[in-house]
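[job 0412] stage=fold_complex status=start
inputs:
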Amino acid sequence: MEYNFREIEQKWHQYWVAQQTYKVKEDSAKKKFYVLNMFPYPSGAGLHVGHPLGYIASDIYARYKRLQGFNVLNPMGYDAYGLPAEQYAIQTGQHPAVTTEANIARYREQLDKIGFSFDWSREVRTCEPGYYHWTQWAFQQMFGSFYCNKCQSAQPIEKLVEHFEHEGTANLDVAQSEELSFTANEWNSWDEKKHSDVLMNYRIAYLGETMVNWCPALGTVLANDEVVDGVSERGGYPVEQKKMRQWCLRVSAYAQRLLDGLDTIDWTDSIKETQRNWIGRSEGAEIFFRLKESDEGFTIFTTRADTMFGVTFMVLAPESELVQKVTTPEQKAEVEAYLAYVKKRTERDRISDKKVTGVFSGSYAINPFTGESNPIWISEYVLAGYGTGAIMAVPAHDSRDYAFAKHFGLPIVPLVEGCDVSEESFDAKEGIVCNSPRAGVKPYIDFSLNGLTIKEAIAATKQYVKEHHLGRVKVNYRLRDAIFSRQRYWGEPFPVYYKNGIPTMIPEECLPLQLPEVDKFLPTETGEPPLGNAKKWAWNEATRTVVNCSEIDNQTVFPIELNTMPGFAGSSAYYLRYMDPHNDKALLSKEADAYWQNVDLYVGGTEHATGHLIYSRFWNKFLKDLGVSVCEEPFKKLVNQGMIQGRSNFVYRINDLSHEKGHPVFVSFGLKDNYSDVTPIHVDVNIVSADVLNVEAFKAWRPEYADSEFILEDGKYVCGWAVEKMSKSMFNVVNPDLIVERFGADTLRLYEMFLGPVEQSKPWDTNGIDGCHRFLKKFWNLYWTKDGQISATEGEPTKEELKALHKLIKKVTADIEEFSYNTSIAAFMIAVNELQTLKCTNKQVLEQLAILIAPFAPHIAEELWAVLGHSTSVCDAQWPSFNEKYLVEDTVKMMVAFNGKTRFGIDFPAGTDNATIEATVRSHEQTPKYVGDKQIVKIIIVPGRMINIVVK
RNA sequence: GCCCAGAUGGUGGAAUUGGUAGACACGAGGGACUUAAAAUCCCUUGGCCAGUGAUGGCCGUACGGGUUCGAUUCCCGUUCCGGGCACCA
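[job 0412] stage=fold_complex status=done
writing structure:
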């Protein structure tokens, strides 16, 4: 009986659809298990073989869990908003919704061929009003909340207003953009506009005047994680810093919870470390420096409070508001010139050349520990957005301060015993403090750090600062608030209108606010975002409807926000929506939430480490504070699948010979070194098989190659190869459909897993795919006799058959749990060979085997399960458990080692007890020969393993 | 510069986490069946040396040390490749 995979796979696809095999419902009788893949952005290029890698891995796990009796949620959807569709729309005028829809259809078609156990009835698309309703809703909830530091949770903004009405800002401990100070009387005297402005300082979703990454080429702002090396992640366009009024999310309020949560989740250390770096917690102190001959001053942040006695100058960030205050009239011209210079420099310039620049402000600050006056400088190496935008410079112990001091000839005072600061700074936090205060200098305050270790000195200084009210102990985070506005068309509209300058939320019951139609997807001529082109984009408060912009009267009809939300808005809570995707009353029902809780296994790439995976955690924590999500962390276990790189093939053109003959001449890989002038040319990998070029297909590939000539080796044209990114331009994109067509989905699934560990990046290489296909054929043949009859026979399996089977059950079960699919497939290959050798036809064994293969190769498993006489899906079978008693070896081989030199083996019958083994070893006739006059002092016996004999 | 992960045959990769390194697969070589090819099956396949042979010996997990009876695995140092962060005070 032939293994006709095309017929089998088609048959079972239809069966699964007809039977709704993968549809899942909440079922309190069963334990839940939630498997999730990062949903794809449906690009125009379709799926390549790299995309399904993670989906296959998670599908195997989902199927395995289901066979174990879990109620498995394994949904799929599309991250449908995004820049490529919009760029395409700008170029062609084609509406992004149309191209997105077409791309989704293509993706779906490709995905369906691979045999996933997705519950498509739960599909979500971020661009559908029924979905983004809840993205908009969440935004409104964030607008209506502030973050209370004391209770470490989001609270309704009304509570804060109440606080202001009674106490002003007294006794306030909340997350805020800047520290404001006002009384209850002041608050109560302010008008509505002023209240709105002040509350923006506290809201979790707020309008903020912030420095943003502005990308002129894309005409939009970008989040920090969307900027790589000073250029945009998409497209690689230059990015500059610009101050703009933008919607922001106060992610920074959650910094500590985001950090603490990392200890509770099962993610790889490297990705947790990346997030820790991104959050960037640093403990230090804020210390107040008074300006010379003034009562005013400013606060600096330092993690090295121990270096107070080594401060020789101060530095402000150019963007700092303090710059104007401290610049003296004499220095004004120079400072202005410097500020102009800094403004001109892009993010990229700063990164590429790190030359030392700066200017003296003319003012001095008094060091509260030494009483010395330190000159205040302005330099771009100090960042406005971190700490207080001002630092105390200790050139002896900070390399940046050191470079600055050397460049401008400022003094350097070492503070660690025995350190040498003549060539470079001593940045290490170890050693004994000296010069604090310096010998012979009259102490300014009664405080000394001399003789302490640096760690002790930091603690002592913090203590002193706290007691003497010179500042406070402070924890800073590098994590910034997320900029939430994008000047784009193809994104979620903000459900906000502007009532005479006051941002006002569209009533919750009027959501979703649907994306309007526009004639052009480009920004308007006046530089407004694309939504500025919409004719019908105003809010009528009376009728509570969207109306034409021409009706705006600022009485009852007001303009609506023109920005849209960024890509991460829709992807931040999609895992919750899958739990209850069709609910039009809420993001999800309490019941669905209580049952599915959070994602047990999340599979996706590492590229989202500082984007989606932070935003999602933030979003979930906010929803938890709201009582919407029951879990603090959205994703319990995270597995990062590696990238599949392309394996490009090359042909080698002999340039001079081609020129001479008037047609291209190509030389095979092994002979190319015989020619001097050879150019490697990318060739479509789809016309190369096992690095051998299909010459006829090559001639047909491009008209200019039609009359090519080939210099062959062994009658073949062998191509060269290289590992590169999988991309159209390298002609190395392999489409999964082609593999499915040629070998079947089961072979593709098996092969993608067999290629190596899921987490590892590796080049796609079809050279080994035959092996997996061959294995499936062998597997298939176990179930059939030579003349096409079902081979299964009733009766009890033999001891050998049971041993082969249980060895496999044990191995596969353990491997799936550890995501080690390549080794479990190897175990299958061994088992099939063993059973083949045993001529096994036992029905019980064959049944269990079909269940075991089901997660990996579901189609063949269904077919064979049916062949064995079952009328239900193999998905509803039960995963076999192994019995250790079948696995006991007949003999236990013991290795005995002496002095690491000589080893010999002794075989013991199974079940031999340790005392017998020990006695045998001691009396073994070979023993004296190898031990000589040395005495055995200890015999360590590990059952089933080795004996260690320790000799003296 | 800092942090993280890694380096094993011609290739992808195994190794029960300190216990016979190279499972499984690909490729290669040889053979069987066949007029032939495809398909299928069998044997060999880390390197070097000795032997007609069964077999035996030595070397071998990037490099150099160390701990151990025993190290791909643990520790120290070096080189190389990959990922993240990068004036974060």
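[job 0412] summary: The mean pLDDT of chain A is 87.
[job 0412] exit 0
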